[in-house]
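Renewal narrative, Specific Aim 1. Our central claim is that a sequence can be written position by position from structural information alone. The example that follows is taken directly from our test logs and has not been curated for this report. It begins with the structure tokens describing the chain, in the order in which they were read.
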């Protein structure tokens, strides 16, 4: 991969890994639904501006129904659930749980997409990853990581992300719409849906005071961790391919743990990094990124090659002798005519 793409790769992992700390700070002033709306509003404006500068366009109306469904599972539900979850658990836990999204996606894709056949490697990875997720959540712990309900909300957000990825691949990818156009439409749709839900449910009375910290966190969360991050992901998919680009999920939990501990002073006990490593390793195994020991089949000993017959000049019946020169051109012509056939077979 080109060094520029490696830089995009690292920046994307950092933006997504830091987003959980931004959510935590923003919750000091905004309710979860209000936070999700503000994040989507800023992200939609950023991506819409990029779409206008690049002279792109929104998709046709025929696919907006599918885009609305994808936006619910890909933005409205997970953005809200992660905010709800972080009211009752740490940003570190939320980030590590989000790292299990591709693992859940593999399982759902095997059920919903015919071309995604479940293999022994994928099933093994899913089972190991589920064990790792339990280790991360640590249901035996009741101190330092908030409530189990908050952690389960983050798990629900990861599952919702996985559903959206599978839905996008099955119902929207066949239309061959540019990824930037889909992203702009998805964020816009999610913003409208979240705004309507917020208006008719909790309203717009803020639970806290809007100070510089929460407001700045919301702007960075929407503009960078939502808007710019989607653009970086689209560019990585175009330049390096979707398989390589999806590997960014391996680094998101790493950044979330580091930022949560350094910026928010969150405690990190053994089960968080251990469970995170298990989840990441299981995902690498399921996706084929982690090589398995190759089995070497026993090779039979090579048979001895018989020596070519030695012509006997004294035996007129020996067929290995050079024949009369008159029949050589005929054999050479036959050989020349046979070469194109062999070449075509090789191709």
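The sequence written for that structure reads:
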């Amino acid at each position: 991969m080109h060094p520029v793409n490696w830089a995009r790769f690292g920046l994307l992992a950092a933006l997504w890994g830091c987003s959980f700390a931004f959510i935590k700070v923003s919750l000091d002033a905004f309710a979860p639904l209000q936070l999700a709306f503000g994040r989507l509003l800023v992200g939609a404006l950023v991506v819409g501006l990029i779409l206008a500068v690049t002279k792109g366009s929104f998709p046709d109306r025929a696919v907006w129904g599918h885009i609305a469904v994808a936006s619910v599972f890909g933005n409205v539900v997970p953005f809200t659930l992660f905010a709800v979850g972080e009211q009752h658990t740490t940003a570190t836990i939320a980030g590590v749980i989000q790292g299990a999204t591709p693992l859940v996606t593999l399982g759902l894709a095997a059920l919903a997409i015919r071309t995604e056949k479940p293999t022994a490697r994928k099933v093994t990875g899913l089972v190991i990853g589920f064990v790792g997720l339990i280790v991360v959540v640590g249901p035996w712990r009741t101190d330092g990581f908030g409530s189990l309900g908050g952690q389960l909300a983050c798990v629900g957000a990861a599952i919702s992300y996985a559903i959206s990825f599978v839905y996008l691949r099955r119902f929207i990818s066949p239309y061959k719409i540019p990824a930037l156009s889909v992203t702009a439409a998805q964020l816009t749709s999610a913003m409208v849906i979240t705004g309507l839900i917020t208006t008719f449910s909790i309203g717009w009375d803020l639970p806290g005071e809007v100070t510089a910290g929460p407001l700045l966190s919301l702007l960075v969360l929407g503009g960078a961790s939502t808007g710019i991050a989607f653009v970086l992901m689209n560019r990585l998919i175009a330049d390096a391919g979707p398989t390589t680009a999806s590997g960014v999920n391996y680094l998101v939990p790493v950044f979330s743990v580091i930022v949560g501990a350094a910026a928010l002073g969150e405690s990190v006990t053994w089960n968080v990094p251990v469970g995170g490593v298990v989840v990441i390793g299981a995902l690498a195994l399921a996706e084929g990124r982690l090589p398995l020991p190759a089995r070497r089949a026993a090779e039979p000993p090579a048979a001895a090659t018989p020596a070519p017959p030695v012509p006997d000049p004294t035996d007129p019946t020996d067929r290995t002798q050079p024949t009369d020169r008159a029949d050589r051109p005929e054999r050479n012509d036959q050989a020349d005519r046979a070469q194109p056939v062999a070449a075509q077979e090789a191709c």
